[in-house]
Amino acid sequence: MPKYDVAIIGGGPGGYVAAIRGAQMGGKICVIEKEEVGGTCLNWGCIPTKALIASTSVLRYIKEAQNYGINIKGDVEADFPAIMERKNKVVATLVYGIKAIFKSYDIDLIKGTGSFLAPHRLKVTLAEGSHEEIEAEKVLIATGSVPAVIPAFPIDGKKIISSDEAVTMKEVPNSILIIGAGAIGCEFAFILHELGCQVTMVEMLAHAVPLEDIDTSRTMDRELKKRKIKLYCGIKVQHVKEDADGMMLATLESGEQIKAEKVLVSIGRVFDVKGLDLDNIKVAQGKRGEILVNDRLETNVPGIYAIGDVIGGIMLAHVASKEGIVAVENALGGNKKIDYRVVPATIFTNPEIGSVGLKEREAREQGFDIRIGMFPYRALGKSHTMGEIVGQAKIIADAKTDKILGVHIVGAHATDLVHEGAIAIQHGITAQQLGDTIHSHPTLSEVLMEAAHDVHQIAIDMPKKT
Amino acid sequence: MGDESYKFHKEHLWFKAEGDTGMIGITDYAQQQLGDIVYVDLPDEGDEIKKDESLGEVESAKTLSDLIAPVSGEVIEVNNNAVDDPSIINKDPMGEGWLLKVKLSNPSELDDLLSEEDYKKLAK
């Protein structure tokens, strides 16, 4: 029976990163993955959607070419199968990349479904149905999550779809109803809108991207409206059924009905612990089925660790990766604690969203006396040269210490810009210090320098406040 | 201009009464201050607007501003031409670039509005 120092169940952004770090530390590592390495992130989520967005961005630039003095002669059309093919190629390249790294570190990739026979003995059901047993000193559970399903709109994969089917669609529907206007729902709204699909959205909470800072949510509400994407907020979909003409008919709580060719359900994701046979090792689980861990990411069963979406914390790829590093270092004798204070989050809509640290409402709830600095993109020279003037940066600072507590950007390249905020918060930088740092002109990064100035009402490129 | 049926609110919107309804738009001064208007976010038909409160937003190359309602009432028509092509508002803010038609809920509010002459003193 093969023996490993660490066996990792799940090869997503948590598991594969843990494997590499474990191997760097000299551990003998295997990764058990039932599909492809890279997991949901690389094969079904983050990466495929960003590849699609790259294509729709090109299309958008072509549509707006005239604004830049470029006349396009002849027809422009989006070749959807070719867009999907490009996306598949990007994914394949990155999957291959991970496999090559695994090989260089002698990490065994076992294609199959892992389950527990005992705490240190795993059964792997291989793709063709045969079984294999392995022994492992330590085990990391990194099985991730799957799209949430609720009975009112059961996903059939054809007319009612989840993000899994949305990234593998064969053609662009004429119309779609997106249930849930969070990160996933909004990203698909913009992708499909650019491709000519008529998009309608329903969100249970009060705004689009409702978990973001209020000013970000408001900007997104407006940008959707600008594109004639109708967003119903503060209301639930009661049920969805197929109409006589084959269209889907959704009924809202208010009785209002929405007709669309397809329905995309993006209401969140749930932990994937199916098939792990956790009962065999008595791992403690929370009320929602999440695996419970301590701050070293170890479960109640010694030597069994869990990371990523399956522990039900912040369900983001980069959080899983960080957890993977901490957990595997602990599994191989370290004693590290996970630190969730600074977790940047990004949404690839148009405009993009980047946020880190406390939202305004959180800062107030936590009793901070705060000062807020805001600066609009449209007051930056670079924004105008790019023709991307929508959005703003908002900095929330502690009024007593001036330390930056939160940074919330919505606008072009917000997903990259937000990391300046992450560094600032991680290292206790003040708004004054950030504003005092020379930022190159003309760049979008000036939006953060100016927002930092605005914390003290001294933004330069802005008329005096009255 | 010089049309006495136009009344003005100090926050740079005008109102032109036609019986118990009327049209709302932004003033020429406002469109000059805003510069190229790129988007106007208006309420829907059937929505209520309230005098002195924001009825929507106007977005230009320079700024994003609230549109402050000159009167209270129910929106009975939205100028979708202006929504689809906001440059109309720059070209003809007091005419083709109107924004909303409303049914007044409190016609006495008109007494609070300014004449063109008084507005011009304010907006310079």
List keywords for this structure.
heterodimer, A: 466 residues, alpha/beta, 5-stranded mixed beta barrel, 5-stranded parallel sheet, B: 124 residues, alpha+beta, 6-stranded antiparallel sheet, 3-stranded antiparallel sheet, 36% strand
Topology:
The complex is a heterodimer of chains A (466) and B (124).
Chain A lengths: L2 E7 L5 H10 L4 E5 L5 H5 L2 H18 L16 H25 L3 E11 L2 E6 L4 E11 L3 E3 L12 E2 L1 H4 L8 E5 L3 H12 L3 E6 L10 H13 L3 E4 L3 E6 L5 E5 L4 E4 L1 E4 L3 E3 L32 E3 L10 H15 L13 E3 L4 E6 L2 H6 L4 E7 L4 H6 L4 E8 L5 E8 L2 H13 L4 H6 L9 H10 L11
Parallel strand pairs in A: 1-2, 1-5, 2-3, 5-16, 7-14, 8-9, 8-14, 9-10
Antiparallel strand pairs in A: 3-4, 4-5, 6-15, 11-12, 12-13, 17-18, 18-21, 19-20, 20-21
Helix pairs in contact in A: 1-8, 3-4, 3-6
Chain B lengths: L5 E3 L4 E6 L2 E6 L1 H7 L2 E5 L6 E2 L4 E7 L3 E5 L4 E6 L1 H5 L2 H5 L8 E5 L11 H7 L2
Antiparallel strand pairs in B: 1-2, 2-3, 3-9, 4-6, 5-8, 6-7, 8-9
